Amino acid sequence: MEDRVRRSGGATEASMSDWAQSEARDISDAARRRAQETGREIHEYATEAKEYVQDTIQQTKAYVDGAREYLGDAVQQARDKVAEYRDGGMEKMRHDVVGYTREQPMLALVIAAGVGLMLGWLSAAGVGLALLLLALGLWVGELVGSVPGGLALVGVGLAGAGLGGGALALRRLQRRRLMEETLRELGRDAEWIRHGV
């Protein structure tokens, strides 16, 4: 009987060993499949990321090319306008200004105010600042779709900056006066203390 128990025990050990090997193979196969799936997913993510980066680069190149083309067109238009006024002289410029003034009287008034302000600054601050402000006005005008509107916005911004600067100067002047009055009072107090009056 012990023989039978030993044989049956050996059969149980063999079947357990077979079962363990089978389970180990199943786990190994599952791990291999999961690793392959993960590898495919990583490859897909990498491919998507690469495509995204390439698309972003293409879009950026397109934006840069568009901006370059826009700036080139703007420069060419400015050159053409300068050549047109150079060839047409003051009569051409006067004709354009009068025509525009009749079409847009309020904007023409604002532009005139801006030009007057710029001419005033031109005498005080120099040609470079005036040209910079004119370029800024033209750029803002292109952004808002109206050159006179851009010049007007720049004029309003300059007026605001002038008012702000004036207010700051006034505050500094008031502080300086207060400081001078305080120093005078301290001087009187020192005299009073010295003389005992």
Description:
The protein has 197 residues and is an all-alpha fold. The chain is built from four helices and no strands. Helix 2 (105-125) packs across helix 4 (147-195). The radius of gyration is 42 Å and the shape is flat. The model is unreliable at 1-8 (pLDDT under 50).
Number of self-contained structural domains: 2
Tally of helical segments: 4
Query: How much is the radius of gyration in Å?
Result: 42 Å
Number of extended strands: 0
What characterizes the major β-sheet?
none
**pLDDT under 50 segments (min length 5)?**
1-8
Query: How many angstroms separate the termini?
Result: 135 Å
What is the N-to-C order of secondary-structure elements (H for helix, E for strand)? HHHH
Helix-strand makeup class: mainly alpha
Q: What's the pLDDT, averaged over the residues? A: 76
Morphology call: flat
Strand content: under 5%
Secondary structure: helix percent: over 70%
Short description:
With 197 residues, this protein is mainly α. It has helices at 2-103, 105-125, 127-144, 147-195.
